[in-house]
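[worker-b] picked up task from shared queue
[worker-b] task type: protein-ligand structure
[worker-b] ligand name resolved to S-adenosylmethionine; SMILES cross-checked against name lookup, match
[worker-b] sequence length check passed
[worker-b] input payload:
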Amino acid sequence: MFFSLAQAQDKDATYKPVLGQMGKDVMWLPTPNELVDKMLDLAQVTADDLLFDLGAGDGVIAIAAAKQRGARAVGIEYNPKLAAYAQAKVIAAGVQDKVRIVQGDIFETDFSQATVITMYLLPEINDQLRPTLLKMKPGTRVVSHDFDMLEWEPDAVVQGARSRAMLWVVPAHVAGEWIFKPVNAAPFAVRLDQIFQRIGGTITLAGRSQALVGAQLQADRLRFQYVADDQTIHTVNLLVNGHQMQGHDSSLGFSQPLSAQRR
Ligand SMILES: C[S@@+](CC[C@H](N)C(=O)[O-])C[C@H]1O[C@@H](n2cnc3c(N)ncnc32)[C@H](O)[C@@H]1O
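[worker-b] inference finished, payload out:
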């Protein structure tokens, strides 16, 4: 449910949230402004983004995303009074054309359209959200105030005055067996192993297998190197799109188109 301007104004104007008041799964504590800035920097939020703050509190992150970066933002807040309070702050900040506070449960509200997720929850709540976050579009940035995502290691960490923020970039799912088709050479097989954003694998060329060198995955961009039969080093750069990849295989200054399909 979205709050309209009139609904927000109708709410109890004397309501003030209290630090530490319990929400459904975690209490309310606002992220300090200096860390809000660092979180928006970490996610490189721009006017092209749609940011969802999971557990919006008084709306500080959603409002800053719109005011400082020109982004659109949605805050999901379980407590109806706090949600109305946050919506009133949205209006007071003059960003109601870009920001909405939704009264709802983060476990029941769809945020799949987000390009950036922010959260200040708890490790066990992050852990429950993790499968949903990992199904989001590759490249979606997730920033958490203070709490990590257990064995899904952050891509970057920034320290604030009292607490830290961590960034994860949702990786494409690349694990499995792939058949690569160069334009002017025989097809070859690659097996990719993946643990979140960390990848490795094996390439099999003309019956000979070797470990991929320097395999990296960032969002939907995959890169690795291998040594061809003539001992030249090849660098492969690909864009992953579901069960397909498209890109180039470069060696000795020559670049050839390359496509791949998951078996
Ligand atoms: C620690 S505060 C963070 C507020 C804001 N994101 C910030 O960083 O300033 C967490 C907020 O999540 C809300 N909350 C707790 N459980 C929730 C749930 N299941 N769905 C939506 N909001 C929830 C709480 O009411 C509280 O306002």
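[worker-b] attaching auto-annotations
[worker-b] Residues 80-92 form the longest helix (13 residues).
[worker-b] releasing lock
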